[in-house]
């Protein structure tokens, strides 16, 4: 017999971290488990995308270092205003992968000052438990397994990575293409309704597949939305697909 998953309501009751609570509350309020990945390279594209998809997403995932005209006042200030207007969180997919001291500098300094605006960030756990101590004021999504072909996140790596993630109080979730324990939230990229890959190693699954087989909590969709002719409509499609796949995964 297949194990049933916990609902967002059940997870909210058990959530310890303020960011986990905010994500789950937002998911329930907007009936969405969709995170749009804004892998665009100008401030204008970023803000236009946020404006279009904002009502349908629970978080906007950024790679802030690919914005060619980044300027804190022109990029982050209006982005934060849109996040407040449409009630979504900001997830910076920085994938920190260094010693704690360097990660702390990368998190707080430079031009991006991630600590000032991101609600949560992604981090590798390859630097060990203490490397995650610096992310005190945000939630951390730990990279457990990657979606790309040939990734080195083998079974034994994932097992060790999970030990770090599950024991660290700053960690709210993990990125993985495999099921993980329910104590932390599962974020799954590599989701696309039209394609199975991108010719550069990315491997895609459908929302239905990831909710059914992984019991994921949140799907991350990049090109399926921002490359679409109509990103607003695409965000509605992925939102609806994700939500019904979640509801289906509750029955069993
Ligand atoms: P796509 O356009 O839907 O393929 O974008 C996927 C996004 O998720 C992109 O920003 C990646 O950097 C990110 N990602 C991923 O695709 N796979 C992973 O294992 C991790 C992150 Br970790």
From TrEMBL:
Tree of life domain: Bacteria
Domain Orotidine 5'-phosphate decarboxylase: 33-238
Catalysed reactions listed for this entry: orotidine 5'-phosphate + diphosphate = orotate + 5-phospho-alpha-D-ribose 1-diphosphate
Documented EC number(s): 2.4.2.10
GO function terms (MF aspect): magnesium ion binding; orotate phosphoribosyltransferase activity; orotidine-5'-phosphate decarboxylase activity
Cofactor entry: Mg(2+)
UniProt key word Glycosyltransferase: yes
Active-site residue numbers: 93 (for ompdecase activity), 95 (for ompdecase activity), 98 (for ompdecase activity)
Enzyme class: transferase
Pathway: Pyrimidine metabolism; UMP biosynthesis via de novo pathway; UMP from orotate: step 1/2; Pyrimidine metabolism; UMP biosynthesis via de novo pathway; UMP from orotate: step 2/2
One GO biological process term: 'de novo' UMP biosynthetic process
Record key words, sorted: Decarboxylase, Glycosyltransferase, Lyase, Magnesium, Multifunctional enzyme, Pyrimidine biosynthesis, Transferase
Keyword Glycosyltransferase attached: yes
Residues bound to substrate: 39, 61, 147, 202, 222-223
Complex and partners: Homodimer.
Assigned protein family: In the C-terminal section; belongs to the OMP decarboxylase family.
The protein's role, per its UniProt record: Catalyzes the transfer of a ribosyl phosphate group from 5-phosphoribose 1-diphosphate to orotate, leading to the formation of orotidine monophosphate (OMP).
Name recorded for this polypeptide: Orotate phosphoribosyltransferase
Organism from which the protein derives: Chryseobacterium limigenitum
Shown residues in whole-protein numbering: 203 to 454 of 459
């Amino acid at each position: 017999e297949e194990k049933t998953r916990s609902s967002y309501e059940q997870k909210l009751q058990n959530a310890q971290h303020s960011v986990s609570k905010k994500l789950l509350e937002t998911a329930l309020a907007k009936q969405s488990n969709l995170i749009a990945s804004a892998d665009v390279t100008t401030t204008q594209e970023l803000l236009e995308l946020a404006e279009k998809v904002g009502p349908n997403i629970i978080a906007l995932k950024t790679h802030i270092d690919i914005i060619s005209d980044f300027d804190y006042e022109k990029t982050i200030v209006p982005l934060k205003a849109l996040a407040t207007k449409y009630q979504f969180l900001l997830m910076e997919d920085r994938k920190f992968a260094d010693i704690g001291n360097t990660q702390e500098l990368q998190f707080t300094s430079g031009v991006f000052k991630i600590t000032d605006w991101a609600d949560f960030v992604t981090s590798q756990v390859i630097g060990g438990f203490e490397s995650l101590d610096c992310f005190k004021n945000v939630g951390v999504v730990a990279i457990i397994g990657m979606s790309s072909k040939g990734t080195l996140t083998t079974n034994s790596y994932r097992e060790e990575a999970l030990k770090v993630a599950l024991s660290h109080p700053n960690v709210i979730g993990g990125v993985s293409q495999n099921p993980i324990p329910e104590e932390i939230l599962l974020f799954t990229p590599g989701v696309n309704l039209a394609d199975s890959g991108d010719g550069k190693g990315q491997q895609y699954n459908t929302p239905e597949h990831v909710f059914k087989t992984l019991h994921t909590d949140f799907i991350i969709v990049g090109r399926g939305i921002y490359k679409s002719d109509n990103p607003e409509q695409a965000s509605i499609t992925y939102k609806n697909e994700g939500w019904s796949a979640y509801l289906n995964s509750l029955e069993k």
